[in-house]
Amino acid sequence: MVGSWVNSAEILGSDLPLELSGTGNRRAVLMRALREAIRAGRLPPGTRLPPYRSLAADLGLARNTVADAYAELVAEGWLAARQGSGTRVAERAVPRTPAQRPRTPRRPARPLLDLVQGKPDPSVFPRTAWLASARRALTRAPHDAFGPGDPQGRPELRQALAGYLARVRGVRASPGQIVLCSGAAHGLRLLAEVLGGPWAVEEYGLPFHRTLLAAHGVGTRPLTVDEHGARVAELGRTDRAVLLTPAHQFPTGGPLRPERRAAVVDWARTTGSLVVEDDYDGEFRYDRQPVGAVQGLDPEHVVLVGSVSKSLSTTLRIGWLVLPERLVEPVLAAKGEREQWSSATEQLTLADFIESGAYDRQVRRMRQRHRRRRDQLVAALELRAPQVRVTGISAGLHAVLELPPGTEHSVVRAAAWQGLAVEGLGDYLHPAAAAPRAGGRDERVGGNGQNGQNGRLRRDGLVVGYATPAEHAYPEALEALCRALPPAPGPGPAHAPASVPAAPREPGPAHAPA
User: Fold this and answer.
1) CA dihedral 155, 161, 166, 167 (to 10 degrees)
2) 338: burial class by Cβ within 10 Å (0-12, 13-18, 19+)?
């Protein structure tokens, strides 16, 4: 609802000092009020906020509205959420003023080079083809498309997705089993509300997903990840669900091996639990045929979560849940009576984009482009840093560079000094799987947090998003990356003086995955 929403100066039934007024939807007004209270010091760092259900009742809001406001403020760094301690104001939520910042020597300003994963280059969005689909979709749209939205989503898009996912990903589902949402994160929020917890997750994964689940009261515990994906044998009977990236483990790379795919489905059948399959980049494989979705093995025990954020744009807030039939109604009840998240006109446009073949053409185009980028990265490292092993390159939009033990943080700092934004592999490690290092050596961590023979190996590495930079900036980003890497052991210069090779105009021979 857009317009002016004014509540009393103080939240009814709550001691939070918030001023709720202004224009915009209710979630935006609530987020703005919380930010202002934190910025002004009325909510000091460490202050515990009421549970989202209580605050929603006090304000007369939908629980999802308050829960999503909390989750977004956690993602922005204003709030912090931990299992068992609720949601609190983050310790460093308020940025320091310029007068408080320490005076340190600065390098001259220069353009920031970006190799952070998850942000495909926006300049390659297919504007002409998308506009053509939008025109056709609006011309053909039925009158009800401009009325209150169906929370399940437009039937035209659900029909198109059912056919596309069956053809490309091996998914078995009718349009009635698909619920549209505003992205993968929104889909996980809905599942968290419906299923409850605890969930098992891969020990390496998106911190945002763990934070999102925690904000909805769902605790997570890590499963060990090796070169064959998650060790699903570690799943227990008390796990309500397991969140996996089977097509291409994020971020370490590599598909879940067939025996483990079968085993996790057997676990779900035996325990009555659910497999949540995050199919974030299943369409982008380069050296072999795509791996089919686990959902095709057992549609009644696997939920497929997908979106267009990697194939088209992160600004298109369209995602989907492919659900077992028994979960469709509970998820719709959690979502609400009307569509509040995803535009019906964008859903109709995407339906035409898929049915016309434009989506297939875009995926093929992006697959060729990302493969050239990947090959250029591998070639640059072979020339400039042959001591660095590259993994996870048979698919996806990023690669992992393995580093010597104890060097990850220094390499990330060196990259920042070069003007390059890149993330360390440790940023994605589940807190319960992390282990302190002793003397720069890797530590194996057992399930109880102690070093153990069968525990986890804490690895040093970089997660390099080779799909992120614009075409003109990619060679410079690779140059900065190579300069930041640790030198090869032994005598001789740290790096060869040669420059990073230019990207080939046509796809060259594929590099076998390490």
Assistant:
1) 130
2) exposed
Residue written as tokens 């002793």? 438
Give 321-381 as a 3 state SS string. EECCHHHHHHHHHHHCCCCCCCCHHHHHHHHHHHHCCHHHHHHHHHHHHHHHHHHHHHHHH
Kindly report, residue by residue over 260-270, the tens digit of the pLDDT: 999 999 999 99
Which residues 6+ apart lie within 8 Å of 422 measured at CB?
A: 115, 116, 412, 415, 462, 463, 464, 465, 481, 484
Q: What is the DSSP string of 481-493?
A: HHHHSPPPSSSS-
- Structure confidence at residue 17 as a pLDDT band (50, 70, 90): low
Whether the predicted pLDDT of 70 surpasses 60? yes
Torsion of CA 452, 456, 457, 459, to 10 degrees: -150
**Tens digits of per-residue pLDDT, 134-181?**
999 999 999 988 888 888 999 999 999 999 999 989 999 999 999 999
Q: Is 225 helix (H, G, I), strand (E, B) or coil?
A: strand
In whole angstroms, how far apart are CA 347 and each of 165, 342, 350, 387, 428? 16, 7, 5, 47, 32
Q: Residue length, the chain? A: 514
419: left (phi over 0), alpha (psi -120 to 50) or beta: left
Q: Mean pLDDT over residues 17-41, rounded?
A: 80
Burial class (CB in 10 A: 0-12, 13-18, 19+), 99: exposed
Nearest to 310 by CA among 297, 321, 319: 319
pLDDT in tens, 205-222: 999 999 999 999 999 999
The helix/strand/coil state of 224 is: coil
- Over 80: is that where the pLDDT of 455 sits? no
Give the β-pairing of 302-307 and 274-278: parallel
Yes or no: say if 366 and 284 are a contact pair by the CB < 8 Å rule. yes
Q: In what order do the strands lie in the sheet with 199-202?
A: 178-181, 319-322, 302-307, 274-278, 241-244, 199-202, 220-223
Provide the token pair at 478: 């690779």
pLDDT tens, residue by residue, 272-327: 999 999 987 777 877 666 678 999 999 999 999 999 988 888 888 899 999 999 99
Q: Which residues of 124-144 are buried (b: 16+ CB within 10 A; e: fewer)?
A: bebeebbebbbebbeeebeee
| Pair of tokens at residue 306 | 């997908």
Q: Residue 464 corresponds to which amino acid?
A: V
> Is the confidence at residue 96, as pLDDT, over 60?
no
- The DSSP element (H or E) to which 163 belongs, if any, is helix 155-169
Radius of gyration for the chain, computed over Cα atoms and rounded to the nearest angstrom: 24
Residues 349-363 as b or e (16 or more Cβ within 10 Å = b):
bbbbbbbeebbeebb
The whole-number average pLDDT for the span 487-512 is 46
